């Protein structure tokens, strides 16, 4: 055989070998494609669970009061210490009372004068009445004495009102705390001129023996919670709401439990949320008005289907899982509770106890994939 014939034979042999290898690779790929894919699965079971739903909250004292002067004058004394607790009716500032003392004394004198004038008018009236009964004076004189008496009586009433106002002004030269609480900061110093039309308070007092925490719930969630109550009302929610926890801004869980005690009846048109208030006791004054944190509301679920959130995927605002039926995937729509713990879902429809589902990687699957269960 010639050299040329040998080359041709060799080429034919190499081509045949290549075709054989290619065919083997396709067979391997097809075999691998047909092989069941391995995904973690689980059988759906009913369970009991308690978890917390969390909401950012702001803190307010049960009584935050801005204190303004009721009269004008110069600050004579400052009898308070910023940031310290105070009692109701404790004097915080005094305004120079000299002008108000003078006005009070003048008002007292005016009352005394009016009382004397009234007594004289009464004597005159009684005397004219007796004389008129004896036809010794005219009807005009008799009625004039009555009118003088009435005028004197009105003058006395006016003088007493002015005395009361003067006394009130004098009392207001002592600026007192209207509530028990803790003082805020003040920029007022002795000698400062203050007036009754000030727009900036002298100081604020916060009664934070207990505190209010305010947070928002979506309208849908509130309706859902209302449906869980026995009569479907917000009042029932309040009466049966569980004790709640509070996480302080430093991450520590506050050592006192709180109670939801008010739900707004108005939905915010902008956010679609409803304001909720919870009250916490604050005996150690750890929580401060104006602060913030997180309320933790416990939700208890009894004998419900619970699945991990990793088993789900969303499509067109619907939640799906892949059930494994006869070792193949079947996309299944499920309904879930709106509240969850961030790791698991409570399934309300779409699955039954004992169903097998893929627990991880569902977003990478399609219908009809053969599954090798782990």
Characterise the protein shown here.
By secondary structure, the protein is an alpha+beta fold. It has 4 domains: 83 residues, conserved putative lor/sdh protein from methanococcus maripaludis s2 fold (Beta Barrel); 105 residues, Elongation Factor Tu (Ef-tu), domain 3 (Beta Barrel); 49 residues, RNA polymerase II/Efflux pump adaptor protein, barrel-sandwich hybrid domain (OB fold (Dihydrolipoamide Acetyltransferase, E2P), Beta Barrel), CATH 2.40.50; 74 residues, Helix Hairpins. Helix content is 32%, strand content 37%. The protein contains 5 helices and 20 strands. The strands form 4 sheets. Strands 3, 5, 8, 10, 11, 12, 13, 14, 15, 16, 17 and 18 form a 12-stranded antiparallel β-sheet that branches. It has a 4-stranded antiparallel β-sheet with strand order 7-6-4-9, with no helix packed on it. Helix 2 packs antiparallel against helix 3. The two termini are 62 Å apart. The N terminus is likely disordered.
